[in-house]
Amino acid sequence: MLSLSPAVADEGMWTMDNLPTKQLEQRYGFKPSAEWIARVTQASARLAAGCSASFVSADGLVMTNHHCANACLDELSPKGQNWFQDGFSAGGQPHEPKCPAMELDRLDRITDVTDRMAQALDGKQGAAYTSAQKAAESAVQQECVAGDPTDWRCDVVTLYHGGRTALYRYKRYQDVRLVFAPDQNIAFFGGDPDNFNFPRYDLDLTFLRAYENGKPAKTQFFPFDVKGPSDGELVFTSGNPGSTSREEPVAQLELLRDVELPATYGYLSTEDGVLWQYGRQGAAQHQEAQNVLFGVENSLKVFTGWLQTLAQPETLEKKRQNETELKQWIDADPARQKQFGDPWAILAPAVAAERSLYARYSMIEGNRRPAGFAGQLYGYARALVRGAAERAKPDAQRLAAYRDANLPAVEAALGSPAPVHPALDETLLAFSLTRLRQTLTADDAFVQKVLGTESPDALAARVVGGTKLGDPAERLRLWKGGAAAIAASTDPMIVLARKVEPDAMALRTRWDNEVDAAEQRASEAIARARFARDGTGSYPDATFTQRLSFGVVKGWNENGRQIPAFTTFEGLYRRATGSDPFKLTRQWLDAKNRLNLNTPFDFASTNDIIGGNSGSPVIDKNAHAVGLIFDGNIHSLGGDFTYDGATNRAVAVDTAAIVEALKVVYRNQSLAGELERGHL
Amino acid sequence: MLSLSPAVADEGMWTMDNLPTKQLEQRYGFKPSAEWIARVTQASARLAAGCSASFVSADGLVMTNHHCANACLDELSPKGQNWFQDGFSAGGQPHEPKCPAMELDRLDRITDVTDRMAQALDGKQGAAYTSAQKAAESAVQQECVAGDPTDWRCDVVTLYHGGRTALYRYKRYQDVRLVFAPDQNIAFFGGDPDNFNFPRYDLDLTFLRAYENGKPAKTQFFPFDVKGPSDGELVFTSGNPGSTSREEPVAQLELLRDVELPATYGYLSTEDGVLWQYGRQGAAQHQEAQNVLFGVENSLKVFTGWLQTLAQPETLEKKRQNETELKQWIDADPARQKQFGDPWAILAPAVAAERSLYARYSMIEGNRRPAGFAGQLYGYARALVRGAAERAKPDAQRLAAYRDANLPAVEAALGSPAPVHPALDETLLAFSLTRLRQTLTADDAFVQKVLGTESPDALAARVVGGTKLGDPAERLRLWKGGAAAIAASTDPMIVLARKVEPDAMALRTRWDNEVDAAEQRASEAIARARFARDGTGSYPDATFTQRLSFGVVKGWNENGRQIPAFTTFEGLYRRATGSDPFKLTRQWLDAKNRLNLNTPFDFASTNDIIGGNSGSPVIDKNAHAVGLIFDGNIHSLGGDFTYDGATNRAVAVDTAAIVEALKVVYRNQSLAGELERGHL
C-alpha cells in the first residue's frame, strides 16, 4: 500500500467507521449490515499489553492466543508448577483465578477530534507544538474518562499519519481470569523453527473470562462455528494490528533500513545468543528465559523480513516515485503550495536529527531494543523515578504514560506479583550496559558517570543484588511515597535510575521536539495533500486500534510448489519427532487414536494482518467465529511496508480443531459446551 | 579505489615487484633502492594462520601481535597457568618453547605465471575450467616445491582479479618458538570497547623466534629504532593484507550487502551472545571462550563497518558508474567487443546462482560463518573424512587444501596438542545445528537426515560426548589410516561428518562450477579490459600476500574534534579504571613511577591496511622498525571497499614504548638488548 489510491486484492486494515463496503460488495457480494458492524465491534477486544481477543460467549468468555497470556500463566503458577508449560484448566467458572496486571479493553465509541486537535496545534512548532499537543490530548482524555479511569480508557489516536485524529473510548476490564490453556508443546509446536512458517500445527490458544463486580461480564459475542471455514470462503479478522509503515515517508524508511534496523537486529541477535545459552545452564534457567527468548526470536524473524523487504530496491523505489508525483501535484498549483508547503523540507532536518540522536537516544531513553538499561527491575526503577517527577506536574504537561488517565495501569503494573528472576535480570542488565559502553564508547562522559570504575557486570551484580524492587509491596510503597520517597531512597536500582534520569529526559525532550514533532508535522502535511488529491477510500496505517480485514481461506504458490490452505491433526502426528520443539505431551500421544485425524487444524488466509493481530478472531459472513489468528507466513513479514496478495498469508487455528481438542484431548466438556451453547 | 586509475592520497597495498616509486618520489621525495626493497621483502614474514610479522634481529627474532600468537600461548600454558592472560618470558634463548602448529613463511621469490595459467584455461568453462585450473596449479606448485614441501611453500596467487597470476614461493619455518609476551590486560587494554577505536593504549605484542635445524635462524631484519617515529614522518608497512573487495563487480557487492553480510552479521551477533554468556558461567568457561569471543567480536566490528559503508548509496553508485564507463569503452569498438565480450552477461547468472545457493552452501559446506556445523571437533572430523577421500585422488584433481604440497600443514594441524574444550565445542555445535534447522527449515530432507529425531542439543551432546577426536594421537591414527580407517570408524563425530560429506561435496562442486568459475571468468575479463584501457600503475586487491603501503604518522579530524597521532603511557594510567577491560596488572601499576610517562605508546598513520596486516612492522625510510601495526581506527573498516585518506588510519604500537616497557615494566634487559644490538 503505497498511497491512498484504492487498495487492490484483499489488502487493508480498515477502521470500523470506514469499512470498504463497496469493495466487499463488488468482490464478494457481501454487504455488512449496521447490526453486523456493531456486533463485530463489540464482540472484539484487545489486551492492553499488546494482543487482540474476542468474546465467544454471552458470559464474558474471551478467546486469545496462548502466547498472549503467557505472563498470566507464569504469574499464577504455584510453586513447583508451570502452567505455561503444562497447561491449565480452572475446572469450572467459580474456580477461575484472576490474572495479575492483565487489562482487557473493549471498544465502546470512536469520536472524530481532528478539528479540535488541529485548532489547538495551529501554527505551533518544536517545543510549543509538543506541549500544546500534550495539553489538548490530556483535556480530551479527561473529558472522555469522565472521572472514572477504572472503568473507561480513552486514547487519542492519530490516523492517516495525522490526516485524522480520533478519540477511542474503551470499556476497561481489569478483572480478567484464566479459564483454560493447553500445554506449551502444542500451543507452540515447532517452536522458533516453525514460527512464521506454514504448514503449521499449533493450538496457540487461551481462554480467559472478563468479570465485572466479581461476576462474569455479560457481553456481545461471536457464536462459535464448530466446523470451521471452507477453502475459498470469505472471512474477516477483527483485531488490533500494532503498527505498519506503509505511508511512512521514504526518508524515514531509509533511516530505518540503514541505521535503526541494523542496530536493532544486532542487539536482538546477541540477546538471542545470551538467552539461549542462559537457558542451557539448567531447567530453571531454561524456564526463566523462555518468555523473553520467545519475544526476541519472534522479533528477529520479523526484522529479518523487514530487512529483506527494504533491501529490495523496488520497495522504496515505488514509494519514492509516489512521493515525487505528490510533490509535483502540490507544486503545480500556487494555492496548493500555500496550503501544504514543502513537507519534505520540514522532514529533512528532522530525519537528520533522528540519524544523529538515534544511538544515544536508544541507549539512554528509548523504550525498545537496543537499550542501554535492560531488565524488569531497572524498568520498575525508571517508572518509579519518572512517575514521581511527572506526577508533580499538571496533567497537561506530563508525558502521556503518566497522565491521570493512565495512572491505574502504571500502578497495576508496579503492583504485579509477577515473579522477577534476579539472575536473568542481572544478565540482561549487564548485557545492555556492555552495549551502552560499546555504542557510546568508553570515552563518553555519560558512560563514565554510569559505570564509574565498575565493569558492566559488576554494576549489574551490585544493583540487582542490592535492590528491593523485586517486591511489589516495596514498589507500591515508593510509588505512593512520590517524589519524597524517591529522593530519600538508597535502593541501588533507584539510585542508578535517578542518575540516568536527567540525561534521559533531556534526550526525550530533544527527540520529541526535534524529531517527532517535525516528522509528525511533515507526515500530516503529506497526508493532508494526499487526502486533497485522492479523497478517502483507503485505510490508515495500523495504530493498535480495532481494524477489520477481509480475505479468503487460501494457500499459495511457493516457488512452484502449491501450499494447501489447511493442515490436519494427522499432519501433526506425522511431524512429531519426540524432540523439543517437535514433541507432544503424553496427553496428546494418548489421544491420537480417539481423535478425528482429518479435523482441520490450522489454516492460511489472505487477510491483511500484522503484529498485534495475535488473538484476533477469524469470523465469517454471519459474524460467527471460525478461527483464531496466531501468526502470518514468512511472506507476511514485509507487510509492514507493503501487502502482496500472492504470497502474504495470515495463519489461524481452526475452530473445529479447538472443539475437537477440548473434547477429546482435554476432555473439557464444560468449556466445549459453553462454546457450543454460547453461554455458561 | 574504484578502478585502476592512479591511486590518490596514501592509498594502496602494493606488491613488492610493482612499488609506486613515481608517487613516492613526487609526494615524499623518496626513491627506494633495490637494496631497500630486497631488505624489506626478506625481513618481512607472515604467520600462515593469518597474520603478518617481521624479523627484528639477525638471529631470527620475530615481532608480531599478541593476538596473533594467542593460540600458541594457550597451547603452551602448563596446567594451572595461563600465559595468554598473564604473559610469558622464556628467560633466555635456550629456554624458548616451540609453538605447536605454528608456521612462519618468508617470501623468497615471485614468479609471473599469467601466461602459463591462461594457456591451461583457454576456452574452458564450468567444471572443465575448475578441473583444468586445479591441474595447472598443482603442476606449478609441485615444480616450485621441488620435492621439499617441508622447507618450501608455493602458492599460486591470482592478482588483479585474474588480470595477473603469480607464483609466490616462501621459505617455510615450522619451528617457531615463544620468546616473550606481555599480559593480556596490556596487550588488549580497553578490550572490545576500544577495539578499532583510537586514542588507544595497547601493547599488542609477542616476540617469537624462527629456528632452523634446532638453532636460531640467521635472517635479514629491520633494525629496531628505539625512539619511534615523529608526527608527520613518512612510514611504510610491510605486511600481508588478507583480502579487499575494491575491484569486486557491483553485482557481487550487492549480493554481499543484501544477503551474505546480513546472514553473517546475524550469526556472529548471536554467537557473540552465546559466548558472552558462556564466559559468565565461571572462570574456566571465561578462559575457554576468550579466544573465540575475541575473533567473533572483532569480526562483528569489521562487518558493522562494512554494512555502514555499503549502505551509503554513493559507495556502490561510484563503482556502478565506473563499470558503465568500462562497458561503454568495450562496446565502442568491435575489436574490443570480440576480445573482452560482455563480462557482465557471464556474471549475472553466476551471481543469481550464488544468491540461490548461498544459504544452503554456507550451512553445509562453507568454511566461515554462518555455519551449520561449528566447533573444533567437527572441523577435525571433516578434515579427516574429506582428507581421506581427497588423498585417494591424483594430486591434480584434489581440492587445493589436500594437495600434496599442503598435506604437511593439514597433518600439523591435526596433530596439534592444542586443548579442545568439550563443553564449549558442544555449545558451538548445538548452536550451529540450531541455525542449520532454522535456515533450511525443519521440512528440509538434509536437516531431517542429520537430526533424525534428535534435537540439535541432544545431537551435539551425543557426538561431542562420544568422540575421541579430542586426542591428537587418535586424529593422527585416523589420518594415517586413510579411507579404510575412516570407513571403519564408529566415532560418532566421524559418523556425523561422513553423513554430511556427500551433500557437502555436491554443493562444493556446484559452487565451484556455477559460482566461482563463472565469477572468476567475468572478473578476469573485466580486469583485462581495465588493463587494456588504463595500463598498469595501480595495485591489486589484497590476497594475503606481501604488500607495502606508505603513509605518514597523522591524527585526523573527528566531527570537528582533532584526534592527535600519538598516545602516551601517561594517558594509559589516566584511562585505567581498575575494572576489566580497563584494568592493569600489579606489575604495570607498580612500574608507573619508574616509567617515562611521556613515552609515546600507540600512534595513528595514514597507511592503507586491512585484516591480515596485524603484526606488520611499521618502518621508516632507512628500513628501521619504528612501530608494530595491530589495528585500524573505526573509519578503516570501510577499507575493504574504498580508502578515505581523510579519516582512514592504521594504528600501531610505537617501538619506543616496546623498549621502555621491556626495560622498565618487564625488566627484560636481554630481549631489549637484542633489539638494540640487532642480534643475540
TrEMBL record, chains A, B:
Indicate the enzyme's highest-level EC class.
hydrolase
What keyword terms does UniProt attach to this protein? Aminopeptidase, Hydrolase, Protease, Serine protease, Signal
E.C. number(s) listed in UniProt:
3.4.14.-
| Pfam families xrefs | Peptidase_S46 (PF10459)
Similarity comment text for this entry: Belongs to the peptidase S46 family.
What job does this protein perform? Answer: Catalyzes the removal of dipeptides from the N-terminus of oligopeptides.
Protein name (database record) = Dipeptidyl-peptidase
